[in-house]
Amino acid sequence: MEGIPDHLDYGLAIVFIGFNPSLRSGETRHHYANPRNNFWRILHLSGLTPRLYNASEDQDLLKLGYGFTNIVARPTRGAEDITKEEYAEGREILRDKLRKYRPQVSCFVGKGVYSEFSRRAHVEWGFQQESINEGVHEFVAPSSSGLVRMKMDEIIAIYRQLSLFTSKDDHL
């Protein structure tokens, strides 16, 4: 199964970065398409989107200033199926994408995604002190997977930091 298309452009407020597409996303060719994934609901409840979108509308979020990509393009059942080689290659590809498009914020959807990208073992939620790509703020948000054990209110509160950041910046 081939990867799904990125939704990237210049001047984006946020690029959301996942591990890789789920099998369901690979089948539908849309980001966060697994019905057990809470991504679209989290975006809406945190104030990042004015209404509840669904995965089939992922490309429409470019109009809101949001893009999508993954550290690894190949769809799998789970992140544990990604090889070290795929991560190494994906890390370089992702760095190049972020350097090229230079979003205001790169939001890593899960601590594990950011750890794989940054090679940092200790990661906190929210904005990171040091960015790998100069001029791009790095933000770590909880995974939106239905398997996450965090309370939904806690997850939404972390994503709300992004909403507050982008709404206070007039240039976004």
From TrEMBL:
Domain Uracil-DNA glycosylase-like: 6-152
UniProt KW Zinc keyword: no
Keyword annotations of the record: DNA damage, DNA repair, Hydrolase
Origin organism lineage: Bacteria, Bacillati, Bacillota, Bacilli, Bacillales
SUPFAM superfamilies in UniProt: Uracil-DNA glycosylase-like
Keyword field contains Repressor: no
Full protein name: Uracil-DNA glycosylase-like domain-containing protein
Source organism, top-level taxon: Bacteria
InterPro entries documented for this protein: MUG/TDG (IPR015637), Uracil-DNA_glycosylase-like (IPR005122), Uracil-DNA_glycosylase-like_sf (IPR036895)
Species name: Paenibacillus segetis
Coiled-coil portions: none
